[in-house]
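Long-time lurker. I teach an intro course on protein structure, and each term I like to show students one example going from raw sequence to a predicted 3D structure in token notation. This year I'd like something fresh instead of my usual example. Would anyone be willing to generate the tokens for the chain below so I can use it in lecture? Attribution to the forum is fine with me.
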Amino acid sequence: MIKAILILAIGVVVVITAGCATNPLAGTTSQSPAAQRDYEVLTGTWQLTRGVVNGKPVPASVARDTILVTDHNRFRFPKQSRIGTHPAGHFTVNPNTRPKQVDSLAEGGPNTGQLTRGIYEIIDPTHKRACWGPTGGPRPTEFKSTPGSHRILQYWKKIGPVPSQ
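-- Reply from a regular --
Happy to contribute to a lecture. Here you go:
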């Protein structure tokens, strides 16, 4: 259970949904209008509603306690998320690809400075999904996590705005 939580936390860190044409990871500061729109929709407090790690479903109790806060291109997990470390980082989105691409760079924890590549979809203003490849590995091309894939598939529901710190 703790291993699943840690893997989920790392995935979420890598997570959240972000890419290349507007890549702050590469030091660029300009963003396309499409990327700006996606960052606006992605900004808020999110609860994991369903997750699959390497083909295994995340227990409902773990999903319920997994809260993610994104503020434009930054993310963090609040302390009450029951995650061993409190990962944070930043991400970039590329909404001009199909599926949309996201790159996440961890700040803190065992994967500090490592890049995780993923794909994302904004289903509607309060629901999103993401699929992450292994840290340092290839980007998924579909929203699936099968045994042996080392992928993390996540479904999120927005539960509020970014809380004040």
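Some talking points for your students: The first strand starts at residue 44 and ends at 53. The chain is about 15% helix and 35% strand.
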